[in-house]
């Protein structure tokens, strides 16, 4: 039996940004305050979840390396099921829903089931990290191309990354902490200079943020010795060269 369209709820795929509640869009904050069901990732900051409606049901579908609270297909089914029951659902994702957030898969599942879906963009991790660390991902003098890649993809060793980093280009690697050694080895094998500048940005735009700098060949040691943990991004390119004024500004902000 089909459900009348006016009785079907709407699913909102909402970007929560990097974690700072002040970096939410106004629409994201408004939807979060209204929805009675919030399905959220594990990396969504508790301060953002505290902005939800007091009576909202919060459902965690946290994903961690080698452990998923709920498989992706079950998350999609959950969103569809709640909407077909007449509920508006906020699916809250760290960063932006469409940048390594599987928002495309969830939107497709909703559309296939006849559930209205809206995507509310958020500040991506790459944009947030670049801004917080004062690293311009594109720069007229240093980089006219920027690429985003996932560092934990299964076929890492089989992919050709030769055109993604180098002179005039910036490479931003998501989810690359655990595979930093393989990433460095891969990029060097594909022709990138071992002394190419890199930055590792941990907990971007949060009070505990760290910006670690080095060169590509030393990336594995940097990650291991500094005990870098997710969430963290690896940025590779000349735009990451250390600048005293930028570092001074970051240090000042950290003290405030």
Automatic annotation (TrEMBL):
Pathway: Porphyrin-containing compound metabolism; siroheme biosynthesis; precorrin-2 from uroporphyrinogen III: step 1/1
Keyword terms: Methyltransferase, Porphyrin biosynthesis, S-adenosyl-L-methionine, Transferase
One Pfam assignment: TP_methylase
Keyword Methyltransferase in record: yes
GO biological process: methylation; siroheme biosynthetic process
EC category: transferase
Assigned EC number: 2.1.1.107
An example molecular function term from Gene Ontology annotations: uroporphyrin-III C-methyltransferase activity
Family: Belongs to the precorrin methyltransferase family.
UniProt protein name: uroporphyrinogen-III C-methyltransferase
Organism lineage string: Bacteria, Pseudomonadati, Pseudomonadota, Alphaproteobacteria, Sphingomonadales
